[in-house]
Automatic annotation (TrEMBL):
Organism of this sequence: Kineosporia mesophila
Database matches in InterPro entries: LpqE-like, Lxx211020-like, PCuAC_sf
Gene3D superfamilies: PCu(A)C copper chaperone
Protein name: Copper chaperone PCu(A)C
Signal sequence coordinates: 1-29
Length: 190
């Protein structure tokens, strides 16, 4: 067997042994081995090297969604995107349990008024930094609500990153008057 294949087998065996130990230690400590297995599934082997995904370094801090009724037809998700990694991460899209239509939006000045529009290129979260999603700023827009979202409800959100990995979180619904922005109708939105 060529030497480089032998090294790959040793690396693979070492990685599997480490994952088994993490799972066993988690179970002994009363924790869930599912968490260890889930974390391990986000790690990819590329050319014999272990690499991580953008989702490994992205955390959503204090997520919440604005309560809304179906007459409003839309709402938004807010919070902070924190990148603890050493490379930039780009959020390219989002999906929610509240609707089949979700977009990434930003606020821009148009004819002297602040209006929201789709965020071309997604949200870039610089390495080691936070990117705020807030009323009056960048946010995850939830359109075509199928049922009301009341204070205390929970909405699940999945962010898809530029490397294809995903980050799932739950946003708690809150009542607020913030975020009463207008749409830029140049996109056909009103």
């Amino acid at each position: 067997m060529p030497q480089y294949q032998s090294k790959r087998l040793v690396l693979a065996a070492t990685t599997l042994s480490a994952l088994a130990m993490v799972t066993a230690l988690s179970a002994c400590a009363g924790g869930s081995s599912t968490a260890a297995t889930s974390a391990a599934s986000d790690v990819k082997a590329v050319g014999g090297e272990i690499t991580s995904t953008g989702a490994d370094s992205l955390t959503v801090v204090d997520p919440w969604v604005k309560a809304a009724d179906t007459k409003a037809g839309m709402t938004a998700v807010f919070g902070a995107l924190e990148n603890t990694g050493t490379t930039d991460v780009t959020v390219q899209s989002a999906k929610t349990s509240a609707s089949s239509t979700t977009e990434l939006h930003e606020m821009v000045m148009v004819d002297g008024s602040m209006v929201m529009q789709k965020k071309e290129g997604g949200f870039v979260v610089k390495a080691g930094e936070k990117h705020e999603l807030a009323p009056g700023g960048d946010h995850v827009m939830v359109l075509d609500l199928t049922k009301p979202i009341e204070a205390g409800d929970q909405v699940t959100v999945r962010l898809t990153l530029d490397d294809g990995s995903t980050e799932d979180f739950t946003a708690l619904a809150k009542t607020t008057s913030a975020g009463e922005e207008k749409y830029d109708d140049t996109d056909g939105m009103e």
